[in-house]
Design a protein that fits this description.
heterodimer, A: alpha/beta, two-stranded antiparallel ribbon, 11 helices, about 50% helix, globular, B: mainly alpha, 17 helices, about 0% strand
């Protein structure tokens, strides 16, 4: 009995030692690789801080493939003497699942510089995950002042308009929560290594959990996006465009693309449920309607204002090859959008140089007119 | 199956669990089945080749024994042995060297002005053929020499040849060492489990963390059209540690896995980069191959009991063939000739060197050790340049680059240093403490070992580079 207890104690002690050593290893590794703090959190949220407007990037912060430059934007450090394009948006633009340097803004820069003869383009990714148009609006003067861009791309996720706007509160530092980074590493490893059958079972369990949590949601649930919210989207998008134009920046608006395509056909119905987990205030059936109506607004404003226009919803094919989840691109999806956007910018550059048109008069091909 | 694959992580515990449940007879059958599965998982077609080798050598050895018991004349026994040798060498020659000899012959004729239309064949090199062929040959030779009784059961002999931990990359076990372990019931001791775990973790760390992370650096340097001297130096340093960690890592895992099943495989690497002369290097590097070459080639050629000139000739023959064993390319022949030359020069200059470095003063002895060690390490490294290069042109360019240092990317240097210095530091402890299983000292608490293994396994699991195949699989 005594011997069994002794063995049991040593097994437990060894397990604790192994776990502690592994946790220390992850933290040292993160410190070495990303300059992450040894104590405290290290996840994608740790590369951002909050200010009076909202979330902003920390200079030179890193978390795995996500590396911010000295201005706190994803991508390389700023260069001088370039034609600048700023990409305003949320996680789709920031890049979540694409390989490093394959996110939409980086691919756009590569495409532009491949086709440009004399100019050097620099595409600056000022998007952050979860950034709403409302927050971006308040940042535009700062972007214009700091970056002096020639083009401003607006790729807006309409789900921010499901909920009512909240008043900007005082900025709060991210909470330090007790988390074991090694557990997260093992979870990621398991995701990669577990056989498909087990992964499918885990996904099914996740779906069940999602259904449960959505049933427990106590807020207002809309069948379709209220008209007032769509109008709020219209007015904020108009304001953003006017703001950019007033600062001499040529806006290019982009419709929002999803994995489900323009006709909202889903090869994987669970994917829509997963999307709704992040936006429980709208029924699954309302998402198609929301996308159609907000994209119609984008088209109408582009035509009305005579700004650049890219119909991402129409050109990025649906399905898993182009979307990793419901709205986030794969390398291929980002490539399609980058190519089309590069074409619009190149055509505008050509028309500017050949006809000496002012920024207000782009050809109808380039705009929604 | 590769040791560094997820499939092996499932395969090994399954086999071990079954192994501990059954008796000795079924343990051997289980291991044979597992070994054939292990080999067949790569390419089941070549199982037939492996089986053919086993059948020929088993029956040749049995026949040799019967002839010996009948008192048959030596010539008759030699003829029977020749059947086994011919079968093994024809197999090895065809699969490994056919295209090499054809293309070399074609090039030779072309330089003489005769254009021929010799065609090479699309031949897949069966994995591990050099290892199991040499092992199987050693069995028949030992039976011929009457140093070993042939196995009575074909299944036991088949397990000797195909035993999965060392089947595809050694160590090359002599039948006198392994066959008795197969025949006798085995009991895995506590020490074997402890040492086995140590070897497996240590081997994985060397292979997956060190060797695989060095691989892209080596590839980068050896792909440069005109590397600078410093780039060549650091590229070759990286390759020296890559090939060592790759091969010795495999051997450590093989020995560790065998220990968990109660088997003892011979030590194949004994801190080779701490050698102070070429002769010592070959008693520390790929020990099982150098022992094989000594026992079955160098000694039959006359060994060291003949005139100095003939000894030099034998050393050169042994090392050139040893070089060719590594692969069908002229740079391996050149590497073998280089190693042979080092051995010859060392043997010739040994009296002078012994006198030069003889001292009673400990500080002078330490200094002389350091000088000899540094010189030998760099001579070995130059050998690796010959070994890794893809053409004579590259050998020439990289050799000439050594005379003009130039610049080197700091990132490349720091990567090589970061990956190799910790290993070198541990090896220094191993060397001076004369304890390879440095964590298994009496005073070392189990909890300390757990902490160390956890650290190594972290690097193996989470800091591994893109999975690379074992370099020695191609030999």
């Amino acid at each position: 009995m005594k011997r069994t207890l002794k063995i049991g104690f040593r097994v437990v002690l060894s397990a604790i030692i192994a776990f502690t050593v592994l946790e220390v290893c992850v933290r040292v590794d993160d410190l070495y690789e990303d300059g992450a703090p040894f104590w405290g959190n290290h996840d994608i949220d740790s590369i951002f801080r909050a200010d009076v407007v909202g979330r902003r990037g920390i200079s030179n912060a890193r978390f795995r493939k996500w590396k911010l430059n000295n201005a706190g934007f994803r991508g390389p450090d700023l260069r001088e003497g370039t034609v600048r394009v700023v990409c305003i948006g949320a996680s789709e633009t920031f890049g979540m699942y694409e390989s490093e340097d394959k996110e939409f803004p980086r691919q756009l820069e590569a495409d532009l510089n491949r086709s440009a003869k004399q100019l050097e383009f620099e595409v600056i990714n000022v998007a952050y995950p979860g950034q709403s148009l409302r927050t971006a609006l308040r940042r535009i003067p700062e972007y214009v002042d700091l970056l002096k861009p020639k083009y401003g791309l607006l790729y807006i996720n309409p789900t921010a308009y499901i909920e009512e706007p909240t008043k900007a509160g005082r900025p709060t530092a991210p909470k330090t929560k007790l988390s074991f980074r090694i557990a997260e590493r093992f979870r990621e490893l398991a995701k990669r290594l577990l056989p498909d059958l087990i992964q499918a079972q885990l996904r099914a369990r996740n779906v069940e959990n999602a259904k449960d949590s959505l049933q427990q949601y106590r807020g207002t649930v809309y069948q379709t996006l209220p008209e007032g919210n769509v109008e709020r989207f219209r007015s904020e998008l108009t304001e953003a465009i006017d703001d950019l134009v007033s600062h001499g920046v040529f806006p290019i608006v982009i419709t929002h693309a999803t994995r489900f395509g323009p006709n909202f056909q889903y090869e994987d119905p669970e994917m829509l449920l997963n999307w709704r987990r992040f936006n429980p205030g709208l029924k699954e059936s309302g998402f198609a309607d929301m996308e159609r109506r907000t994209n119609r607004v984008v088209r109408e404003i582009a035509a009305e204002k005579g700004v650049g226009f890219v119909d991402a919803a129409g050109i990025v094919p649906p399905g898993p090859e182009y979307f990793q989840d419901f709205v986030h691109f794969t390398d291929a999806g980002a490539e399609v959008l980058a190519k089309q956007t590069a074409t619009v910018i190149s055509l505008r550059e050509q028309s500017l140089s050949s006809t000496r048109l002012s920024a207000q008069g782009p050809s109808a091909v380039l705009t929604g007119k | 199956l590769l040791f560094n694959s997820i499939e092996f992580v499932v395969f090994l515990p399954t086999i071990l669990a079954l192994y501990y449940l059954v008796n000795h007879r079924w343990q051997n059958r289980l291991l044979l089945a597992a070994s054939l599965f292990f080999y067949g998982a790569w390419d089941s077609r070549f199982l037939w080749l492996l089986l053919a080798t086993m059948v020929v050598d088993f029956y040749v050895a049995s026949h040799l024994e019967r002839l010996a018991e009948k008192g048959a004349p030596p010539r008759q026994r030699k003829t029977v042995l020749a059947i086994s040798m011919a079968a093994n060498l024809v197999c090895l020659g065809f699969f490994k060297y056919f295209n090499f000899f054809v293309s070399s012959f074609h090039d030779l004729l072309a330089t003489l002005g005769w254009n021929t239309n010799l065609e090479t064949l699309h031949i897949i090199l069966p994995i591990g053929i050099s290892f199991y062929t040499f092992q199987s040959m050693s069995y028949t030779i030992d039976v011929y020499r009457r140093e070993l009784k042939p196995a009575e059961s074909f299944l036991d002999f088949a397990l000797f040849v195909s035993f999965f931990p060392h089947l595809v990359a050694g160590p090359i076990m002599r039948a006198v060492d392994l066959l008795p372990q197969i025949l006798k019931p085995r009991k895995t001791t506590r020490e074997q489990v402890r040492d086995g775990i140590h070897l497996i973790v240590w081997g994985f760390w060397k292979k997956v963390f060190i060797a695989d992370n060095l691989a892209p650096i080596v590839t980068k340097v050896f792909s440069m059209p005109n590397p600078t001297g410093l780039e060549t130096v650091f590229g070759v340093y990286a390759f020296a540690w890559q090939i060592y960690c790759d091969f010795s890592g495999y051997t450590d895992i093989a020995r560790g896995v065998s220990k968990l099943m109660g088997f003892e495989l011979i030590l194949n690497f004994n801190l080779p980069y701490f050698s102070t002369n070429p002769q010592e290097f070959w008693t520390r590097w790929h020990i099982s191959l150098s022992s094989w070459l000594r026992n079955y080639l160098y000694i039959p050629l006359g060994g060291s009991r003949i005139s100095e000139g003939k000894i030099y000739r034998n050393l050169m023959i042994t090392m050139v063939l040893g070089g060719l064993w590594h692969g069908a390319a002229w740079n391996f022949v050149l590497w073998g000739a280089y190693q042979g030359t080092l051995l010859v020069v060392h043997r010739w200059s040994k009296p002078f060197l012994d006198k030069l470095f003889a001292t009673d003063h400990s500080a002078v002895a330490a200094l002389s050790f350091a000088i000899r060690w540094i010189c030998m390490f760099h001579l070995i490294c130059y050998g690796w340049l010959l070994f890794r290069a893809q053409s004579f042109h590259q050998i020439k360019a990289m050799t000439l680059s050594l005379f003009s240092p130039g610049h080197v990317d700091g990132n490349l240097v720091s990567q090589v240093v970061l990956l190799t210095v910790p290993l070198f530091a541990i090896q220094t402890v191993q060397y001076f403490s004369k304890e390879l299983l440095f964590l298994n000292r009496r005073w070392m608490l189990t909890e300390m070992r757990v902490a160390f293994y956890s650290m190594l396994m972290y690097m193996v699991v989470f800091r591994a580079a893109e999975g690379q195949s074992f370099i020695y699989f191609q030999f």
